[in-house]
Amino acid sequence: MTLLSATLDRVKPSPTIAVTTLAQELKAAGRDVIGLGAGEPDFDTPENIKNAAKAAMDAGKTKYTAPDGMPELKQAICAKFARENGLTYQPNQISVGTGGKQILYNALMATLNPGDEVVIPAPYWVSYPDMVLLAGGEPVTVECGIDTGFKMTPAQLDAAITPKTKWLIFNSPSNPTGAGYTRDELKALTDVLMRHPHVWVMSDDMYEHLVFDDFEFFSPAQIEPGLYERTLTVNGVSKAYAMTGWRIGYGAGPKFLIDAMRKIQSQSTSNPCTVSQWAAVEALNGPQDFLAENAKVFQRRRDLVVSMLNAAEGIDCPTPEGAFYVYPSIAGCIGKTTPGGTVIEDDETFCKELLEATGVAVVFGAAFGVSPNFRVSYATSDEQLTTACERIQSFCAALS
Ligand SMILES: Cc1ncc(COP(=O)(O)O)c(C=O)c1O
Q1: How far apart are CA 260 and CA 305, in angstroms?
Q2: Ligand 1 atom, smallest distance to 125 CA
Q3: Exposure pattern of 357-388 as b/e (b: 16+ CB <10 Å)?
Q4: Whose CA is nearest to atom 16 of ligand 1?
Q5: pLDDT tens-place string over residues 100-125
Q6: Crossing angle (nearest 10°) for helices 274-285 and 71-85
Q7: Does residue 322's CB lie within 6 angstroms of at least one atom of ligand 1?
Q8: Residues near 312 by beta carbon (within 8 Å), at least 6 away in sequence
Q9: Considering only CA atoms, which residue is closest to atom 14 of ligand 1?
Q10: pLDDT band at residue 16 using 50, 70 and 90 as cut-offs
């Protein structure tokens, strides 16, 4: 008998570790490394939010709360859904967790039985398939290529659904592509779901506020009220309010599902950090000007990165609607050779060679389920982005 659970055999180690480790080694050896891998805003948490946390500590609000969130925060979340998404939820339909990540995990743990399928459009956030596997389900990935702007078509969704499908995990704007579904594109998907009443939707709206130009964000239950009873709407303060380290995320859905998720949380982690919950109350109830200012900065960086990457030989970089990622194709570089004699056979080789030759760290597309591509997180300064893109241009120009 071995110590480790057989469940762990179903899960692969993070495919991004190889690049991250190499980047750390190069940095430790004194190399000038520019990391474009981080999935978090580079801004500091706004002052009013930090002050709310300090005030909570000073007032002794440092004890346990209800396992899935305190009433004041649930109230603030209900108000946010009504204000920003036109969705009406009662506090007993809200679950607060240690990041959106815990909410997604709890929901899958609470609902999946062996053999249950979960449809995941690819490119996907790396954790979705492995969370499904940890919860005993089967991920069914649907490849959505550059030709559809990395978005799933209604026909693809329809074809992926079987009698065993329990959930669709939907993420717009997306990590890793930044692709956002328009109202019409989303409605076409919800129409498909209305024809399959056994399928639930887990909508990961984490990048809701990071949208550009005149793109308008919509969530599935908002577009199709007929889906309200079988949707878990997931969001959090991490990306919108530059609060990744505070670890507060939340989900809203039917009470029986929220109750089931609470059962799991109450027997595992209990309440998310109390001081962070008070900070999140201020984030959601306080001034919201930060959101638009933040999005403006990211839009400028997106434009910079898209134009510089498209100027690189062999790279095709679509312009995404949101988040802080771009997901360029390197199809034009495959089969070429580096000055050192390495053939670029796939995106993993491209990213490894790029890092070794130029010190620019990006994540290869195979980690997100669609190749040959790489993901750039542009949550860093314009200067760093300009230098990194110049290095990528030189790297591509030197391939033959
Ligand atoms: C698409 C997506 N969903 C969820 C999360 C998790 O966010 P949190 O920090 O709230 O756990 C991330 C973080 O990278 C993400 O990119």
Answers
A1: 43
A2: 1
A3: bbbbbbbbbbbbbbbbbbbbbbbbeeebbebb
A4: 175
A5: 999 999 999 999 999 999 999 999 99
A6: 30
A7: no
A8: 389, 392, 393, 395, 396, 397
A9: 39
A10: low
Sequence letter at residue 184: D
Query: In degrees rounded to 5, what are phi and psi of residue 351?
Result: -70, -35
Q: How far is the CA of 129 from the centre of ligand 1 (A)?
A: 14
How does DSSP assign 44-103, residue by residue?
A: PPPHHHHHHHHHHHHTT--S---TT--HHHHHHHHHHHHHHH-----GGGEEEESSHHHH
For ligand 1, whether the C-beta of 237 sits within 6 Å is: no
Q: What is the pLDDT of residues 129-181, one digit of tens each?
A: 999 999 999 999 999 999 999 999 999 999 999 999 999 999 999 999 999 99
pTM: 0.97
Answer yes or no: is pLDDT of 18 > 80. Answer: no
Q: Give me the DSSP letters along 177-202.
A: T-----HHHHHHHHHHHHT-TT-EEE
State both tokens at 12: 């692969």
Q: How far is CA 399 from CA 242, 312, 355, 360, 368, in A?
A: 38, 11, 14, 16, 25
